[in-house]
Design goal:
This protein is α+β, with helices and mostly antiparallel strands and 422 residues long. Helix content is 35%, strand content 21%. The structure holds glyoxylic acid and manganese (II) ion (2 copies). The site of one manganese (II) ion has 6 residues, from loops.
Length: 422
């Protein structure tokens, strides 16, 4: 990262890995589970607690903190020229129902570590520097995932997002107001010069190859579907096997078909049924209705399209053969994303400057960065996680790797500060 072999201003600044690690452990209290993970579904009391903690931690560093009409939080450290749009970092503090301590959290608290390093070194940036906590990245409570960054990027309207309901029928807008985080700034109005997201890989590649840094080049395509299978409730003892309309049996055949479609479109395709609701869910009733979700992904949009076609056909065939009705709806379509070449190169150079082993990688998971890439130069930085395990309470990462990722984040941000609007 040196010019003509010399150090540039900011090249001597590094994050304090110990306080970053403490912050990760500190916030893991909000929604802590007995198995050492976190259950912090978006817009719940636990989410409010961690948001309040984040705002207080940023204010303690002299930053101003605001939130917009979708509850996205912005912590801002002023730059020498406050008229410039901010260079931003961020991710999410919500988790899966059985989530870990790192997914999303490393990106927000890594940003906080960068703010702390800038303050403690007294380094002045040209642009304001901001850390963003995006609302409902996980999509575990309100589908789809990346909902608030999607509104920010103009992919969804705010009205449709506020009207989303969870499985208990609670409206997103009501839950947001309920925790006191529906802010005055209209979502999407916030200027952004560039966006960098630090995240655990959530897969096994970096660990297997002994790499510390993943230089993320993009995010694979994702589509989500909901299927309602309608049969007929009937008595488990007196309804002959040949005279049933068993929605759960049909759903089981559909789940098998989803797996087969994933396998048939390899090598990179993945297909998952992750949520199933069986009604009336009584041991002596032949089930009359099943709700299930499907998640399809591949780095190539065309492959995901072919998987969808195959799936529609298989589900219709299974429904007909099982004597049930299947209502199949696509509820999310997030095409493959390619990040900004200059930002990717800045991350690569930063890893090299620190001497961290690195490789290029495409993200298998969805991230807010995928939507931010539509409105600002964007990229991501990955660090390894143990066994590639994520969306699991046992999710774990090495303290040194997390600090390395935050150092790369800091360098990439300072590079953008020098490079953009020059
Ligand atoms: C977000 O966590 C995803 O589903 O990839
Ligand atoms: Mn995440
Ligand atoms: Mn996640």
């Amino acid at each position: 990262m040196s010019e003509a072999g010399g150090l540039r201003s900011g090249d001597n600044v590094t994050v304090d890995g110990a306080s970053l690690w403490n912050d990760i452990l500190e916030t893991a209290r909000f929604g802590a589970t007995p198995k050492g993970g976190i259950r912090r579904l978006t817009l719940t009391e636990e989410d409010r607690q961690v948001r309040d903690w984040f705002a207080a931690a940023c204010r303690a560093l002299g930053c101003s903190v605001s939130h917009d009409s979708m509850g996205n939080q912005f912590a801002r450290r002023e730059g020498a020229d406050p008229s410039l749009p901010p260079i931003t970092m961020g991710s999410h503090l919500d988790t899966q129902p059985t989530g870990g301590k790192f997914d999303g959290i490393v990106g927000v608290l890594g940003g906080l570590a960068v703010l702390r390093a800038l303050r403690e070194s007294g380094h002045e940036t040209r642009h304001p520097i901001e850390v963003i906590n995006w609302t409902n990245e996980e999509g575990a409570r309100f589908a789809p995932a990346m909902l608030a960054s999607g509104v920010f990027a103009g992919v969804f309207t705010e009205a449709e997002a506020l009207d989303k309901t969870d499985r208990a029928g609670v409206r997103f807008g009501d839950a947001l107001a309920g925790i006191g985080y529906r802010g005055p700034e209209p979502c999407g109005r916030h200027p952004i010069a560039a966006y960098f997201e630090l995240h655990i890989e959530q897969g096994p590649i970096l660990e297997a190859e002994g790499k510390t840094i993943g230089v993320v080049t993009g995010v694979q395509a994702i589509r989500w579907y909901e299927v309602t299978v309608t049969g007929r409730d009937s008595h488990a003892g007196s309804t002959p096997m040949t005279m049933r309309a068993d929605a759960l049996l049909a759903a089981a055949r559909m789940i098998e078909a989803v797996n087969a479609v994933g396998l048939a479109h390899g090598p990179d395709a993945v297909a998952t049924v992750g949520l199933v609701e069986n009604r009336p869910n009584s041991r002596n009733v032949v089930p009359g209705e099943v709700f299930l979700t499907i998640d399809l992904r591949d780095p190539d949009d065309a492959v995901v399209g072919r998987m969808e076609d195959a799936l529609r056909e298989r589900i219709a065939d299974i429904a007909a053969a099982s004597g049930v009705r299947a209502d199949f709806a696509r509820v999310w379509d997030a095409p493959a994303v390619h990040f900004d070449p200059a930002c990717i190169e800045a991350v690569r150079q930063a890893a090299e400057a620190f001497g961290y082993p690195a490789r290029r990688i495409v993200s298998g998971a969805g991230h807010d960065a995928a939507y931010l890439a539509r409105v600002a130069p964007t990229t991501m930085i990955f660090v390894p996680c143990a066994g590639g395990l994520s969306h699991n309470e046992a999710e774990s990462a090495e303290r040194g790797d997390v600090a390395a990722g935050a150092n790369v984040l800091l360098r990439a941000v300072l590079d953008a500060d020098r490079r953009l609007n020059a």
